[in-house]
Amino acid sequence: MATLVGGITSSHIPAVGIATTKRLFDDPYWKPFFDGYVPVREWMEKVKPDVVISIYNDHGLNFFLDQVSTFAIGAAHHYDNADEGWGLKTMPPVPGDPELSWHIIEALNKDEFDLTMCQEMKVDHGLVVPLQVIWPDAEEWPVKVVPVAINTVQHPVPSAKRCYDLGVSIGNAIRSYDEDLKVVVFGTGGMSHQLQGERAGFINKRFDLDFMDKIIDRQQELTALTTTDFIREAGSEGVELIMWLTMRGALGDKVKLLHSNYHAPISNTGAGVMLLEPVE
């Protein structure tokens, strides 16, 4: 049976991808951020997962404001990186695992989640940057990926509770998969940030650190947060933290914190990385 070996949170800021490509690991601005990923890289090298379930949000490649899916799952053999305009390095296609994708899709359908099933899907920095920052030297990706895109752009966005429940179903689906695979779930995006309006550049360190503390063993408190709560406390783009809660739901009731790091600002964003391990 497949084993869910861990969960990782990560920013997916485009500037991180550029800094990774330029290898600015020791630059004074970037060093506190990149140092936070060293233990994650070491853990990944030790565990060597086969598949990453990446919870991210699409930035207009597959879904624009005229047609937005609440939850979409890729079921392709590979995913082309089609990000443009950020100056990001051109990366090879991300390999998929369509058999696992369809297993998850069918399991979530039984749990009454209505999904958009994508047998062709482009990916952008939301998915690629977290892979790149953990495997900065990769010429080809060492894992297969199942992309799970959640709407955080067009309101109404799904609630924190709904996303957590989606994660629970994803975790159950992984554990019921009849193949010997090691699976890691990424929750990407966040933390507090706002890109426009009067509060552009807004960062709430207090909220970010409280969220990181509660997601370990008080995650149910976080599922009570409304979209309005997220926008007020974490900025208009801080709602991306619902993707962290999706990852947390997949890991089960109890987890062990192996590593965490917080640094702000990075590109006007609060950036947190966490490494969590399920406890049976």
Task: Looking at this protein, list some descriptive labels.
single chain; 280 residues; alpha/beta; Protocatechuate 4,5-dioxygenase, Chain B; 8-stranded mixed sheet; two-stranded antiparallel sheet; 10 helices; 20% strand
CATH class: Alpha Beta
Helical segment tally? 10
For the largest beta sheet, what order do the strands appear in spatially? 6-3-7-2-8-1-10-9
Could you say which overall geometry the principal axes of the C-alpha atoms support? globular
CATH fold name = Protocatechuate 4,5-dioxygenase, Chain B
Record field, number of beta strands? 10
CA distance, first residue to last residue: 15 Å
Gyration radius, in Å: 17 Å
Query: Order of SSEs, N→C?
Result: EHHHEEEEHEHEHEHHHHEE
The CATH superfamily title: LigB-like
- How many structural units, i.e. domains? 1
State the helical fraction: 25-40%
- Helix and strand content put the structural class at alpha/beta
What is the mean predicted local confidence, pLDDT?
Answer: 95
Name the assembly state. Answer: single chain
CATH architecture: 3-Layer(aba) Sandwich
Percent range for β-strand residues:
15-25%
- Low-confidence region ranges: none
General description of the model:
By secondary structure, the protein is of the alpha/beta class. The chain has a single domain, classed as Protocatechuate 4,5-dioxygenase, Chain B (3-Layer(aba) Sandwich), CATH 3.40.830.10. 34% of the residues lie in helices and 20% in strands. It has helices at residues 14-21, 31-35, 38-47, 98-110, 125-134, 160-175, 205-217, 219-222, 227-234, 242-250, and strands spanning 3-10, 51-56, 71-74, 78-79, 94-95, 116-118, 144-150, 182-188, 255-263, 271-278. It has an eight-stranded mixed sheet with strand order 6-3-7-2-8-1-10-9, with helices on both faces. A two-stranded antiparallel ribbon has the order 4-5. It is globular, with a radius of gyration of 17 Å.
